[in-house]
Amino acid sequence: MDVYGLLGNPVGHSLSPPMHEAGYEALGIDARYVTFEPEPAELGRAIDGAEALGISGLNVTIPFKQDVLDHVDVDEMASRIGAVNTIDFTGEMVTGHNTDAAGARRAFERHDVALDGENAVVVGAGGAGRAISFMLADAGASVAIANRTESSAHELASVVPGATGHGLDSLEALLADASVLVNATCVGMEEDATPVPAEALHGDLAVLDAVYRPLETRLLRDAAAQGATTIDGAWMLLYQGVEAFERWTGRDAPVDAMNEALRTAL
Fold it and tell me: A biological process (GO) annotation for this entry (predicted)?
């Protein structure tokens, strides 16, 4: 039996176990997905122990996404993003990857949203904003990053090809010429709030909200009211897991089964 899992602290809230185990069951793979909560000072020993025990792969969540960089061989995308969310033990080396960017890209693809040549606005300059900004630039979009702390937006824009940094007060002007909007902040998770004024939205936008609890955020309700294409955060969560599943198993993931399990658990 193969063993996969999640490394974080805490991990009790995670939706990854039911999502991945639904995938194993659908494909008849003899595997389990378990969670681990090492103390931060024990992260290196935890990774070494996982390799020694024959664990095939680990997802990584807070607070370890950056610290893991010191313990694995990091691929190019994870290095650019500055964070690892997937560890692969199946090769000759223990490698670190970041599937958040691919997860966002596949969420757009699922909804037939083209990115090449489009103007995209990313709200937020944290970890999710960083991954999504690199993905959009790599896909050929012109990226504008808006953040409450404007200096953080400029800092991120300085390393994302062709990107520009802005404060939130520029959103209305930026969105007037944009066809893609991503909320990469946690605004909308704890309260019915939105980082984007409703009057700045329009029907030519495709709007991805990385928040997945609740699925229908105020931003997505406002966007839908304007006739925009809306993509809830569970799609990005699903596809970052699908990317890890396919990397570890070498097989196409049963996306529909994993999606059903994820949305049932939400």
Answer: shikimate metabolic process
Model confidence pLDDT, tens digit, residues 10-40: 988 899 999 999 999 999 999 999 999 999 9
Burial 175-209 (b: 16+ CB within 10 A, else e): beebbbbbbbbebbeeeeebbbeeebbeeebbbbb
pTM of the predicted model, to two decimals?
Answer: 0.93
85 appears as a binding residue in the annotation: yes
Interatomic CA distance for residues 49 and 44, integer angstroms = 8
The pair of structure tokens assigned to 240 is 């970052």
Q: Are both 140 and 210 inside the same structural domain?
A: yes
CATH of the domain at 81: 3.40.50.10860
Average of per-residue pLDDT across 51-61 = 96
* Confidence band for 99, pLDDT divided at 50, 70 and 90: very high
Residue-wise pLDDT for 207-218, tens only, equals: 999 999 999 999
Is 249 annotated in a binding site? The answer is no
The DSSP 8-state label assigned to residue 250 in this structure reads S
User: Considering only CA atoms, which of 34, 30, 62 is closest in space to residue 50?
Assistant: 34
Domain span at 93: 2-97+235-265
Tell whether 126 is in a known binding site.
yes
Least confident of 11-20, 97-106, 229-238: 11-20
- On whether 15 is known to bind a ligand per the annotation, the reply is yes
Q: Residues with catalytic annotation?
A: 65
Q: Based on the structure, what is the number of domains in the chain?
A: 2
Does 162 carry a binding-site annotation? Answer: no
d(CA 121, CA 185) in angstroms, rounded, equals 13
